[in-house]
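Thread: Newbie trying to understand structure tokens

Hi all, I'm a second-year student working on a class project, and my supervisor (Dr. K.) asked me to get a predicted structure for one chain before our next meeting. I've only ever worked with sequences, so writing a 3D structure as a token string is new to me. If someone could post the tokens and maybe explain what I'm looking at, I'd be very grateful. Here's the chain:
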Amino acid sequence: METARVIPLSREQVRCPQCHSSDLARYIYGEPTADADLDALIRARRVALGGCCVGEGDPALRCNVCGVDFGPAADGPIPTRESLEAFRVSLAPDGGVQAEWPVGRLVLTGSAAPEKPRPNPRVVLEAAIVELVRLDKKVRYLVTPAGFLRASAGPDVHVTSGWETCQSDFDTLRRVAEDIALHSLSGVLGLARGHASHLVVGVDVSVAGDDPYAEVALVIDVEEGTVVGGTGKTYPMTGKQERELVRNADVGSHVIDLPGDRIGVLVCHDLVAWTGRSAENRKGRRATVGRGLQDRVAAARPNVVLHLPHTVERTGTWVAAWNELKREVGPGLRSWTSAIAYLTPRWRQPKVTPLRWGVRDRTRSSDRDVLDIIVGD
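---
Reply by user tm_fold:
Sure, no problem. This is what the structure looks like when written as tokens:
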């Protein structure tokens, strides 16, 4: 019995009306034949069985992040296993160099890192972790780029933004990010146990659309499945971000004590606070906030610093800042890195900095303590 009722799903056009996620499952109605392909689609949460009969108001889609059902049912073919997103994964350095690493970072390339349509983040992360499992590699901190997950706080949430952001408003959006991340990644955390101790994930949270918004980073204990630290962008870019960013004013949240480590977590342009040119030109509130962020991180003396930028295509934005941060923190800083989203040239001008020798090598402490998990075609 092959008859089923589904709705075509485009990553560019269809999103959850509640949390705006594109991580959706299609309901299949009728009596589809049970086979390995259907089982793979169900396990990947790309389809869900809706029952033998379909009524006029039965939903077509289910959000894998917040669980809401929506959309009118429509006729269409049963999805195939080939419709699943698939990403090639490689580790660098590869081979049997070592089994355990202080840091593993996602290096998203090609179809895994376009600006639009966005890939399914859960599928990207699953692909990366499956490769760690397959090669029996372990990392203490697995870090994603900023905005790896996206969430919406909904129209009923009202927050201040810009330099005058109330810390309680940022904390509200951080809690939204925590709920979305733990719900969306619960299955992935189970897969990662024994191969990653902590997941450091970027979550962008919007309010009633695209702005105002917050850029959040969460540190998740993989074994316990709990958030053990959270921070967010403190140092916005000039212009639009200074008005619309729900800013994290708590500079102390950028340093998190964990068993055996003190880690610094910087979100996107927070790292720019360390560039000499930025320090020379900034004035007023920008100067005060930038210096305060620098002083807090330097005084804490973290031994690991993790940076979650939205994109890394050229290193000029980050290399000078890394050099100054290393100087201020001192020799106790053992491992540092930026996660990477190396966008496809379909949406940007052709890249001028090569991924291997330019971007990857200049945004990590060394290839002995940072494992690159390269995902994409």
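A couple of things are worth pointing out once you decode it. The chain has two domains: 4-83, 89-375. The two ends are 36 Å apart (CA to CA). Feel free to ask follow-ups in this thread.
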